[in-house]
Amino acid sequence: MAKMQKSENQASSKDVCSIVIPIFNRERTVERTILSCLTQEHAAIELILVDDGSTDQSVEICKKFLKMKHRPGTVVRFVSQPNQGACAARNLGMSLATGNYLLFLDSDDTIPAEKISTQIAALNHKNADCCISDYRVIDEHAGSCELFRNELKPHQFISRLKSPSNSAIIMRRETIPKGMQWNVSLKRMQDFDFMLRYLATVKTWVYVPKALYNYHLHNGPRISDGYLNGMPYFAIFLSMHNHLKIHSVGLYVYIKLLSLLGLNLMKASFKDSASKILPISLKRALKLVLARSSVS
């Protein structure tokens, strides 16, 4: 069983934001990520660092923050586990979170100092379930920066196969459906799957038209290149189906979301080798929708 270590401060404010960071061999970037969290204008921070079996100096870098004296209201927690993948690490971190708000952040990305204060203020002003912001993609190799806007409504993200990026969203922890976890069976598109499942059950939200998250690209293509290539089409569809079946959203919403998701997955698949298995996937998907319709 993973053993958790923590700094001396105790996070006790009702406005605590838990930040879960999964880490695997990120000795070059994790300190920058941690510092971006600890220098937030919002001091009520519960920073949960989950090491996923790193073999470099990532653990040592994380542990030095346990020994530091932090601002009142800020606490740093550290836990390690054998290598199981980012989804398992996020699930562990989520199970340890105690804050009213929850944010997932990768160990090579950063957040501007005003992120948490801005989004929590917007959440409280609208009494919303979650707050969605814009974000920047910073290509460190090319020296470029591009703004991505998240102006869509939650269900539009699903129907258009667009992920708002998991770190652009701050959620009220209580609005995450009971038992919902990151899908450890998926080899890619895990954030796409988790966020779209969460957005499917969101009742109220607020959008902040400001870039409050920095996605760092180190090498290789842009984030948008190959975004849908290799997407596990039916696995994504089945994951959403199972989620909606467990967390009742009503028959109309159920059919609407799955139909739009299936249609756009179908369109995307024609650009990919997965189109060879598309007819089988669509038949299975249709059977699932019809079965639910007949029961309801």
Describe this structure as you would to a colleague.
The protein is of the alpha/beta class and 296 residues long. Helices cover 37% and strands 20% of the residues. The protein has 9 helices and 9 strands. Strand 6 and strand 7 form a beta hairpin. It holds the Pfam family Glycos_transf_2. Keywords: Transferase.
Taken together, the total number of domains comes to 2
Q: Which structural class best describes the helix and strand composition?
A: alpha/beta
**What overall form do the CA principal axes indicate?**
globular
CATH architecture of the largest domain: Alpha-Beta Complex
Portion in strands: 15-25%
Query: Strand-and-helix sequence, N→C?
Result: EEHEHEHEHEEHEHEHHH
Percent helix, as a range, is: 25-40%
Instruction: Report the strand count.
Output: 9
The value of Rg in angstroms is 19 Å
Largest sheet: 9 strands, mixed
Q: Give the integer mean of the pLDDT values.
A: 83
Low-confidence stretches: 220-228, 272-281
Distance between the termini: 42 Å
Determine the number of helices (DSSP H or I, runs of at least 4 residues): 9
CATH third-level topology of the largest domain = Spore Coat Polysaccharide Biosynthesis Protein SpsA, Chain A
Protein name: Family 2 glycosyl transferase
Keywords: Transferase
Pfam families: Glycos_transf_2
Domain Glycosyltransferase 2-like: 18-153
